[in-house]
């Protein structure tokens, strides 16, 4: 098993994060992603989450090249194109 190449900024209480984690599990990609727990709020943003993600919300996914995807729908679309099985999100929807 190789080291995770991506980092997911997450909190288990976030329903948006949970969608991403479900897709990771269902598509067998859990090992590709390291988890970075955080609890950002509008009045107490997380400095590391803000790097490359000025909105400061989670989930945010830092890719191997250092770029950061944010908004769960964008992250889900990206990850659903990164596995060889059937897509979970219907293409063209
Ligand atoms: N539309 C966003 C919503 C994400 C969102 O609202 N995340 C909340 C946690 S559930 C958050 O990061 N709040 C911190 C803040 O607003 O500063 C998505 O789908 O990812």
Descriptive terms for the model:
93 residues; alpha+beta; Glutaredoxin; binds glutathione
Q: How would you describe what is shown here?
A:
By secondary structure, the chain is α+β, with helices and mostly antiparallel strands. The protein has one domain (6-80): Glutaredoxin (3-Layer(aba) Sandwich). 27% of the residues lie in helices and 17% in strands. The protein contains 3 helices and 4 strands; from the N terminus they run E-H-E-H-E-E-H. Strand 1 (6-10), helix 1 (15-26) and strand 2 form a beta-alpha-beta unit. The longest helix is centred in the first third of the chain and has 12 residues, at 15-26. Bound molecules: glutathione (GSH). Glutathione (GSH) binds next to helix 3. Glutathione binds next to helix 3.
The CATH C-level name is: Alpha Beta
**Total number of strands:** 4
* CATH topology title: Glutaredoxin
The average pLDDT is 95
Main pleated sheet: 4 strands, mixed
How many domains, in number, for the residues?
Answer: 1
Q: Compounds present?
A: glutathione
Order of helices and strands: EHEHEEH
* Strand numbers in spatial order across the main sheet: 2-1-3-4
Q: What is the assigned CATH homologous superfamily? A: Glutaredoxin
How much of the sequence is in beta strands? 15-25%
- Bin the helical content: 25-40%
* Radius of gyration (Å): 13 Å
Query: Could you name the ranges where pLDDT drops below 50 across 5 or more consecutive residues?
Result: none
Shape: globular
Assigned CATH architecture? 3-Layer(aba) Sandwich
Number of helices: 3
Distance between the termini: 34 Å
Structural class: alpha+beta
């Amino acid at each position: 098993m190789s080291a995770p190449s991506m980092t997911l900024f997450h909190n288990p209480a976030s329903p948006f994060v949970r969608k991403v984690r479900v897709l990771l599990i269902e598509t067998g990609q859990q090992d590709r992603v390291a988890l970075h727990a955080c609890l950002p709020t509008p009045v107490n943003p997380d400095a590391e989450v803000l790097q490359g993600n000025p909105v400061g919300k989670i989930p945010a996914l830092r890719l191997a090249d250092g770029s950061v995807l944010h908004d769960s729908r964008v992250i889900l679309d990206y990850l659903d194109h990164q596995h060889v099985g059937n897509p979970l999100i219907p293409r063209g929807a």
